[in-house]
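Bug report (template v2)

What were you trying to do?
Predict the complex of my protein with thiamine diphosphate.

What happened?
Run completed; filing so the output is reviewed.

Input:
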Amino acid sequence: MGETSRALLNGDEAVAYGARDCGVALGTGYPGTPSTEILETFSRIGGRAQWAPNEKVAVEVALGVAFANGRAMATMKHVGLNVAADPLFTATHTGVAGALVLAVADDPGMASSQNEQDSRRYAVAAGAPLLEPSDSQEAYDYVAESVRISEKWHTPVLLRLTTRVSHSKSIVAFRAPGAPPASPHFEHDRRGRVMVPANARPAHRRMRARLDAIATWNETNELNRLLEGSDELGIISSGVAALHAREAAPAAKMLKLGLTYPLPIERIRQFAGSVRRCVVIEENDPVLLDACLAAGVRVEGKPALYRFGELNVERVRRILAGDTSPEPSAPAGKPPQLCPGCPHRTAFQALHNLDCIAAGDIGCYTLGVLPPFEAMDSCVCMGASIGVGLGLRHVLPREQAKRVVSVIGDSTFVHSGITGLVDMVYNPPETGHVVLVLDNGTTAMTGLQEHPGTGRTLDHQPTHRLVFEDLAAAIGVPRVTVIDPQKEKASFERILKEHLDSEELCVIVARSPCLLNAKKERKYAPRQGESGASTAS
Ligand SMILES: Cc1ncc(C[n+]2csc(CCOP(=O)(O)OP(=O)(O)O)c2C)c(N)n1
């Protein structure tokens, strides 16, 4: 895209442009719908962008940049924030010298997620200011605002998107770049950053004082806008819900909040007092509602049924009308399935035939739960397959325990499977265990992103490759086997059975490229040790 002053962008792209235009020195994150396009776009438009092995590492790397006076952004989907919560909760104590923005995309309605989680709760729990854009323009503008707030108050900032904001396109007018970032440099601040209890106690007090100061500033902050209307009905809202509410009740007066933690509670109180009826319209959890009620502001919330799924104009109309009658159900979509020719199919056929108990994980391969395979028995969070499989092995009767297999994808293995493997050799079940790593050489589920096991960086350039079989052996797994589920389809089931019968600790790496990625890979520069057109890792 050329350098125009306006462009049609989705919210993720807008965040990337926002990051570019305010001099973000490094963007890092882990893929996850609906956040993935932020870093991909940032890289495409010249930003320094890299995939981290998981979200915790991403936030830690970004924190290092911000300790060095740089501007950093970490991107993730909502569940990624669970993984990154540990550094976040202490980064709000240490504070930052430069800027640290966490762009987190929630998925109300779970278009492609394993849970429905409202990340706004994290802002409150961790003590991080929270901004909620409602469209692409705000997504773009709020990056600069987040950087400003982060630098002014030396705090990490959460920029919370939702699926509808991330993936809807609207016009963005680019702004002239603001003050350029400081050149990265290091200044010691051991009391401020070494969080031993003696330093952490005053750091917590500083964090609360900072939030008080931001709350005071937020009372007159222009990110919170009053939209004039009738005094009969007032609506308090934020994010995309505010757009739905505006359309559902165009005559209503609205307080549209942009910086939703810490809240401008006196302004809200004043607003609620200026209207006859005041309703809080928000997606998912009653976060704004609870804060208003706790402060004694007289507002109404929504009936419980609207806590589930995305809001839309019709649902907001129903909320305002107090309508709790059953909602029309959405037409059933076509169920997803593994692609024809997908290498994962061989593994699931074998798991099915051997009547295995499959502790599963998250990725394309979760579709192994569906007919005709029905060969997955749990899927909780990334990496859980190994821990859950070990737990099952530890207590099940011997004959059942011997059928337990942990099934995990390659990107997921790097993200959070490795420590599970360490536990396997540290606390081995009596019947041994089998971990099946389905290595299709890409993060297929989220759109074919690279990861450390592919040996390529975010922009597909060669880099060091993590070799799973070497890693497993180094961890101390006694039996490690690599098998090609396409070329060795006929023997796959027999080999899996042999491993199960052996009662050893085993890792089987089933390696065959994702068909959707193989074609793209041929165009990438060869990796170390490759002569020309690459094969999948
Ligand atoms: C903590 C967390 N981060 C990101 C995601 C999004 N996500 C789901 S599965 C997955 C990786 C899938 O890749 P892989 O394990 O290689 O399996 P494949 O889809 O290639 O079969 C990602 C990034 C998530 N569900 N949870």
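What did the reviewer find?
DSSP finds 21 helices and 18 strands in the chain. The domain at 344-521 is CATH 3.40.50.970 (Rossmann fold).
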